[in-house]
């Protein structure tokens, strides 16, 4: 780390993305005493934070620290920083990263807290960032993932997450920057596993909402979570992840949270589908992002390309994009060829 980083009060942070998660994390950092520049996409979000110290659009009800400086100037927010946290929805990651290319200082650590797999390329966010910001070495990159609803972090409910980086010193630095007595941070070296766990669980969470919307019971949900984890792990193994990551915070931890928590946008989208609303109707009423909707498409195409069996993700894709009825999808899953439980690979 650079000399500057030895003294916390000199550490300069930029946060890119003013949705719920970006706001909760930026405020956590600002409340810790770091001067935090905060890029928000909408002019009205900036104006409102300045006037009310609140992000009424994406994180209503929480007072934001005076140490948080909202801005619509992306370049200014990422320039000359020790750490830049990127937390925009995955479908705008590429365009956002391209805008900051060439403006990241050599020593800057990039942390990504977005969860998703890009349509078309099937890249996780580290892959998109590697393509768009080639000046950022792998050793300066980390992923923050794990079970963490923005509103619960903003409310300072005890939350435990993981930071994955190929470089242990980078992971430790990021751990130190984010940790508070209510936000415990573990380190991990499995970037691929942390990203896949955090992304594919959103697809399974939609499926979990669907089964609740259909009025199916706890047996069904427990089965869905267990078999959902099996297919996340199967994809992960194929892509070189460490299988142990899927028994950790970015795996089963985030999967359980999102499949059971009413605060989950993905679960909520699924529940409304199970209750009979169309995807189009649901999305037209949402300003926030339910990453699983787009990730379902990536997972469907990627798993077919790789020949990885992911039946729950596939049925979820067919419900979202091919008008397959949720009840028919459940029937298909339940009547697949019978097999040995541990035939994973
Ligand atoms: N909200 C949460 O509890 C958590 C969210 N995440 C992840 O964080 C990422 C960001 O999600 P949230 O902060 O929840 O966002 P959000 O869903 O609350 O809000 C959407 C955000 O997208 C921004 N946006 C819309 N169009 C844009 C564009 N063209 N360019 C740049 N930004 C644009 C909006 O300004 C807003 O900040 C997602 O990948 C999500 O899965 C991860 C963990 C927890
Ligand atoms: O990733 C999350 C919690 O860890 C948030 O999930 P949702 O996007 O479904 O709300």
UniProtKB/TrEMBL annotation:
Active site residues per record: 201
Intracellular or extracellular location(s): Cytoplasm
Binding locations of NAD(+): 17-22, 150, 265
Keywords: Cytoplasm, Lipid biosynthesis, Lipid metabolism, NAD, NADP, Nucleotide-binding, Oxidoreductase, Phospholipid biosynthesis, Phospholipid metabolism
Principal location: cytoplasm
Enzyme class (EC, first level): oxidoreductase
A single GO molecular function term of this UniProt record: glycerol-3-phosphate dehydrogenase [NAD(P)+] activity
PROSITE patterns: NAD_G3PDH
Glycerol-3-phosphate dehydrogenase NAD-dependent C-terminal domain: residues covered: 190-330
Glycerol-3-phosphate dehydrogenase NAD-dependent N-terminal domain location: 12-170
Amino-acid positions noted as binding sn-glycerol 3-phosphate in the UniProt annotation, renumbered to this chain: 115, 146, 148, 201, 254, 264-266
Residues that hold substrate according to the record: 115, 265-266
One Pfam match: NAD_Gly3P_dh_N
GO CC list: cytosol
One GO term (biological process): glycerol-3-phosphate catabolic process
Binding site for NADPH: 20-21, 115, 150, 265, 289, 291
Superkingdom of origin organism: Bacteria
Coiled coil: none
Family per record: Belongs to the NAD-dependent glycerol-3-phosphate dehydrogenase family.
Protein name per its UniProtKB record: Glycerol-3-phosphate dehydrogenase [NAD(P)+]
Gene from which this protein is expressed: gpsA
């Amino acid at each position: 780390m650079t000399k500057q980083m030895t003294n916390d009060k000199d550490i300069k942070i930029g946060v890119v993305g003013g949705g719920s998660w970006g706001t909760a994390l930026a405020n956590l950092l600002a409340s810790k005493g770091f001067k935090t520049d905060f890029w928000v996409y909408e002019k009205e979000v900036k104006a409102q934070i300045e006037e009310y110290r609140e992000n009424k659009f994406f994180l209503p009800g929480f007072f934001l620290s005076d140490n948080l400086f909202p801005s619509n100037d992306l370049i200014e927010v990422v320039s000359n920083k020790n750490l830049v946290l990127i937390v925009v929805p995955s479908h705008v990651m590429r365009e956002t990263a391209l805008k900051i290319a060439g403006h990241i200082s050599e020593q800057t650590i990039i942390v990504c807290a977005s969860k998703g797999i890009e349509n078309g390329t099937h890249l996780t966010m580290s892959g998109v960032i590697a393509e768009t910001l080639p000046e950022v070495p792998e050793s300066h990159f980390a992923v923050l993932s794990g079970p963490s609803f923005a509103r619960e972090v903003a409310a300072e409910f005890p939350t435990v997450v993981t930071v994955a980086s190929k470089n242990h010193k980078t992971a430790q630095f990021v751990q130190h920057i984010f940790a508070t007595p209510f936000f415990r941070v573990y380190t991990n070296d499995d970037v691929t596993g942390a990203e896949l766990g955090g992304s594919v669980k959103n697809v399974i969470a939609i499926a979990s909402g669907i089964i609740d919307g259909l009025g199916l019971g706890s047996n069904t949900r427990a089965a869905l979570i267990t078999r959902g984890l099996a297919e996340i792990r199967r994809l992960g193994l194929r892509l070189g992840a460490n299988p142990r990551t899927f028994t950790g915070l970015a795996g089963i931890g985030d999967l359980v949270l999102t499949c059971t928590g009413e605060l989950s946008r993905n679960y909520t989208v699924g529940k409304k589908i199970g209750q009979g609303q169309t995807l189009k109707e649901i999305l037209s009423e949402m300003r926030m992002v339910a990453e699983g909707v787009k990730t379902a498409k990536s997972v469907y195409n990627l798993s077919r390309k790789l020949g990885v069996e992911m039946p729950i993700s596939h049925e979820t894709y067919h419900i979202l994009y091919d008008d397959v009825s949720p009840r028919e999808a459940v029937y298909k899953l339940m009547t697949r060829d019978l097999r040995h439980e541990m035939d994973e690979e």
